[in-house]
Amino acid sequence: MAISRxxxxxxxxxxxRVPTSDSLLGSDPFHRKPDYSAAVVRISTDTGPIxxxxxxxxxxxxxxxxxxxxxxxxxxxxxxxxDFMSDPGKVHRRLMEHHQLRxxxxxxxxMVVGGLVNALWDIWAKLEGKPLWxxxxxxxxxxxxxxxDWRYLRDVMSPEDAQLILQRGRLGAGERQAAMIQxxxxxxxxxxxxxxxxxxxxxxxxxxxxxxxxxxxAKVGSNxxxxxxxxxxxxxxxxxxxLLMTDANQIWGVxxxxxxxxALAEFRPFWIEExxxxxxxxxxxxxxxxxxxxxxxxxxxxxxxxxxxxxxMLASGALTHCQIDATRLAGVNDVMxxxxxxxxxxxxxxxxGGGIGLCNMIRHYAIWDQxxxxxxxxxxIVEYIDFLQEDVFNTPVLVQDGxxxxxxxxxxxxxxxxxxxxxxxFPDGEAWRNRKGPIGSAFEA
Length: 445
Prior knowledge:
By secondary structure, the chain is α/β, with parallel strands linked by helices. It has helices at 62-72, 81-86, 88-96, 108-128, 132-138, 141-147, 159-170, 173-182, 198-210, 224-238, 254-264, 281-294, 307-315, 331-344, 358-373, 418-424, 430-433; strands spanning 8-17, 37-45, 51-57, 187-192, 216-219, 244-247, 271-273, 297-300, 321-322, 382-384, 399-400, 403-404.
């Protein structure tokens, strides 16, 4: 399909924040009162398509993301999208290897690059009239390989290794795609938010079970007695066949994680997620060995800050489940590298969802992985959060019978309703103008 000249004319960034701290939705041991937020990116072009993406935050610090996006966006104004389509790796490196900004390291810098890069991929998919997952599935192998920075990865997985994975993934891909359109990736839901009462958790689980959900996750780590009570309650509700995941959000040291999860092992958790610091590879290895003796998996990824740390986690056996996040890394280019490495080490990809827009994005990665990379739906579950969807997006995420529905609209599906933007724009939207008490960095839990 020939694409005519399509140049970027301007880039708009918005800071939107929803006061979810009022209800404690999203609360965990570390992040006790989150305000689910996003830096919203819209890249306009001279021929019409608008590239949309989000970078997720939980309140304070979203303005840091906005500043970074606005500052770095000057490097993209005037870019012909065809140049990105012909060599997505070159544009990615141009943003990631700025001779001064690179000094800042990962974190906000890498997330900001991801916000811009993901919007470029959104334009590409819209120009081809495909949902993002279909664009990735149809991409020539050489384009995928050229998108990835191999410099720090090739010692554990070479481009030739990745090429073999992708070649194998093309065998039977048509049948898997047809099956995926009929029934998408299996979903699980985080319902046991730490700040919610038992009654609130039970009500939410009952609603989700009516939608076909069988697998659930609970936050743990603040109080062992409370954790035992809640896991016993959840295990009783979901029965012996449902998977029960636990998530500590990095609250423990290594020994504490092992001891705490040993005390919870009787409830048969499928995995413990983020048991310790996001980049403590040696700590994760120790925990994973100990959990293996208990039949408990170890998952992480939502805060792993780079493909290089993922490389170490995957190659060392620190993880049994790889949780890519849609906005933590530097966009599609980075995430494709991680998904390929996970396939190389035969570790299932179970993306991290939630927030504003994350579920919208991770469904595309899960579908691409299950059609064209790992080439299987088995052993893979994808997180789903049942709020901040229908009121937010023009084409919200759909689930049916406990599985994601494969999206059909072009791009990511991240177009946000204008009234939502106006209401939650920070700090002058209606939701914030008359709010009493401290907000932003001054808001302490």
